[in-house]
Amino acid sequence: MNIVKIVSGKIFFDEFDNTELNPKWEMIPYLPQRISTSELSGFLKMYHGNPDVYLLVDEPDNEFVLDIRNNYRPQIHDIYAGIVVFKEPNYNLELLEYYDVSKAETYVYEYMRLVKTKDVYIAYGKNTLSEPWEVLGSGYFYSGKKIGLVVKGYQEPSPSFDVYYFRLYRSNRIQIINIPINYKVQLLNESNTILDTKKVLDPYVGVIFTQDDIPPYRRYFKVFNENNELVHTSILFDIVGGDTFYYGAVLNCYINDEKLWEAGEYFLGTFKDSEIPFTVKLENPYENDIRNISIQAVPYDTNPGYDWVKFSNTVDGTYTDILPIEVVSANNSITLYGKVIRDTSVTSSIEPYKFLIRVNYS
């Protein structure tokens, strides 16, 4: 069995590491002199001025999490910068940094987070990465389906609002589905520390882990059976909140470019010179390699035709009953070749010969 990622939680990440602004951003009003991604490498800089400037992307319809990291230290009143859920100018939901005389001038919410569930938004902040998230506020808001960054107000001298990254993703949950009931799953970090353990009560739901770290982060899983025996250790994944994983995923198999289904049948044709050639494509649609694969024909009920089926890596290669395949790489496919080679000592029949194709892997 294997664990593969089938859904990515990533919606829109911008690390501002290009000199040109990502075209997904919309600027309101359009004043390109008020931003820069080239003045300071690896940062977006937004400058105060008149009027206020919004930099926006499409807001997801459903729940999401937005994380930003910024460097902004206003030392004067009446200037602000931060996250905005945009409806129209002067009617928005905003999470802003401002000059707070009650705190040291070195204190800022360098890390800001906005979490949406239905129409409820919860704002969080923290000064350093190692601190826990502090809840800053919450409320209902019906947005105009745009979200992004804003600089408001203007006085001299006003600092620029410098943003390291903007990371928009589905949730702070990680889900693994298709695990048998009463199995146990552990979530571990790259230091091999167990972060959480869950027991499977419903194979359709599987297990769900909640993580407060800012993605992407690296994690892996261990799966234990109902006797608490370790049955699988996954690879180390780069994870984004909202990722969904599948335990026991299968390769897609195509015969002569037609997808093979477990409950379907495919007519290969009739013999010509006692052979029926065909192609097999194995497709790995997942984000990690699948290894130690083999393909072979196996009986269909009591039908005798399966032992006439052979496979090869190349069209003119050696055809064998069981063909081993080292790997099908992530998001890739390979093409194999098959033949049904009739045993000429067997009397011809108008009845079809049927067989199943089995693809094994570990």
Can you give me a brief rundown of this structure?
With 362 residues, this protein is mostly beta strands.
Describe the secondary-structure layout.
Blueprint: E1 3-7, E2 10-14, E3 26-28, E4 35-36, E5 44-46, E6 53-58, E7 64-71, E8 80-88, E9 91-97, E10 111-117, E11 120-126, E12 134-140, E13 146-152, E14 161-169, E15 173-177, E16 184-189, E17 194-199, E18 207-210, E19 217-224, E20 230-233, E21 237-239, E22 244-247, E23 252-255, E24 258-259, E25 275-284, E26 290-299, E27 309-312, E28 322-328, E29 332-341, E30 355-360
Parallel strand pairs: 15-22
Antiparallel strand pairs: 1-22, 2-14, 3-6, 4-5, 5-14, 6-13, 7-10, 7-14, 8-9, 8-13, 10-11, 11-12, 15-18, 16-17, 16-19, 19-20, 19-21, 23-24, 23-25, 25-29, 26-28, 26-30, 27-29
Give your account of this protein's structure.
It is a single chain. Helices cover 0% and strands 49% of the residues. The radius of gyration is 28 Å and the shape is elongated. The strands form six sheets. Strands 2, 4, 5, 7, 10, 11, 12 and 14 form an eight-stranded antiparallel beta sheet that branches. The chain has a five-stranded antiparallel beta sheet with strand order 3-6-13-8-9, with no helix packed on it. With 362 residues, the protein is mainly β. It starts with a strand and ends with a strand. It has strands spanning 3-7, 10-14, 26-28, 35-36, 44-46, 53-58, 64-71, 80-88, 91-97, 111-117, 120-126, 134-140, 146-152, 161-169, 173-177, 184-189, 194-199, 207-210, 217-224, 230-233, 237-239, 244-247, 252-255, 258-259, 275-284, 290-299, 309-312, 322-328, 332-341, 355-360. It contains no helices and 30 strands. The mean pLDDT is 90. The protein folds into three domains: 9-169, Jelly Rolls (Sandwich); 172-247, Immunoglobulin-like (Sandwich), CATH 2.60.40; 252-360, Immunoglobulin-like. A hairpin with a 7-residue loop joins strand 4 and strand 5 (44-46).
